[in-house]
Amino acid sequence: MIQLAPSILSADFARLGEQVEDVTKAGADLIHVDVMDGHFVPNISFGASVMKSLDNLETAPYDVHLMIENPDSYLGDFVTEKTEYITVHQEACKHLHRTIQHIRSYGVGAGVSLNPATPVSSLENILEDVDLVLIMSVNPGFGGQSLIHSTLRKIRKLADIREKNNLKFRIEIDGGVNLKTIPDVAETGVDIIVAGSAVFGAEDLEKRVAELKEYCR
Predict the structure, then answer these.
(1) 113 belongs to an annotated ligand binding site
(2) Where does this protein hold substrate (predicted)?
(3) Catalytic residue among 37, 63, 131, 174
(4) How confident is the model at residue 41 (pLDDT cuts 50, 70, 90)?
(5) Which one of 42, 51, 61, 68 is least enclosed by Cβ atoms within 10 Å?
(6) Model confidence at 81: pLDDT above 90
(7) What are the φ/ψ torsions at residue 200 (nearest 5 degrees)?
């Protein structure tokens, strides 16, 4: 079954804890934590302290997405008992294999992300070492963008590579997934779907999570 990971980038930060508990109780499998530094991407979001403020609440595990430069300097800050994955960008890492091993040294799943224009072939020599590949289906930096449909081909290609080489990494998509686009997304071989404004922009969070998860079964 495909997992759903609502992105708190689109949450109401005045009600962050409440909303994260609501989507967790509604059936969210992961909580996607988008971290932006204003350098790697043209926006600033939040840091580890905001994520850790949720630790004592009833939340799904954290799926941390670091859209930042020099991620190795900050990896430890995002490790808690709830951290399931930490994902870094291929484009931000000079020594990607070393960074992946650094993440794994904390006992959490290691992920690598690709921007829309970065080809899958750039990961040829790292796929055996990662637990997760995140395909950006929008240019990172802002929520609420429209899905770039050509990125779905990248997911299908990754799924084919995984099957042919008997690899175990999971495939995630982030950007522009909503009730209109999720039928096409769900047929690509993807394992985790990130949805931000499609979830937290809904009047009824519980209903919206249920609607999206119908396509994940």
Answers:
(1) no
(2) 7, 65, 141-144, 174-176, 196-197
(3) 174
(4) confident
(5) 42
(6) yes
(7) -75, -10
| Domain limits for position 58 | 3-214
**Is residue 197 part of an annotated ligand binding site?**
yes
Answer yes or no: is pLDDT of 141 > 70: no
Q: Judge whether 210 and 26 are in contact, CB under 8 Å.
A: yes
What's the total number of domains in the chain? Answer: 1
| Domain at 168, CATH number | 3.20.20.70
**Integer Cα distance of 77 and 178 in angstroms:** 31
The model carries a pTM of 0.96
Q: Is 12 a catalytic residue?
A: no
Query: Would you state the pLDDT for residue 169?
Result: 98
Of all residues in the chain, what percent carry a pLDDT higher than 90? Answer: 89
